[in-house]
Amino acid sequence: MTEKNLLMLFVRNPELGKVKTRLAASVGPETALDIYLHLLRHTRDITQHLPLDKVVYYSEKVEQNDLWPAQHYHKKLQYPEGDLGEKMKKAFEAAFAEGYTSVVIIGSDCPQLTPEIINQAFEELKTHEVVIGPALDGGYYLLGMKRLYRDFFQDKRWSTEHVFPDTIADIERLHLSHTLLPYLSDVDELEDLQENWPELG
């Protein structure tokens, strides 16, 4: 069977007061928006030249003339109902229904993410059923699989330190072969910002 890879990017529309709200409590909404735009540009810069299909899933509305060039990215709207897990599950469902054989999802919160790590994720999916990139805060910055496992998206305490360990528990309970990518840091709090971008902190 021919391999068909898809990278899905989950992003928020960069609107004042609606992004990086935990960070905004420390630095204010304007600075939080500026930081989020930095993160979006970083995510674009590391993904736009990867030789695979890519789709940007927007939180509120699809933007046409923005920092995601249409020649490199398909554009879709996240499923409107439910929590983050439901939205991600629907995106994976759509990808596999379109015939993709390896599907990876990332967010836009990880300034340490590189093209090499994303390529590694797809390489690992050649020999494993699941690949996961753990974040230091207890979540994950990347999740990849070769078929849909609904359990990964159900009964999760999203945006908490429980997401990664609970997902690993699902993987082990389902007896799936998996591999971990390097632990990286997301930017959600002021401390994360000072670690990753001291000049902005």
TrEMBL record:
Transmembrane segments: none annotated. It comes from the Bacteria. InterPro entries: Nucleotide-diphossugar_trans (IPR029044), Trfase_1_rSAM/seldom-assoc (IPR018641). Pfam families: DUF2064 (PF09837). This is Glycosyltransferase. It comes from Pontibacter lucknowensis.
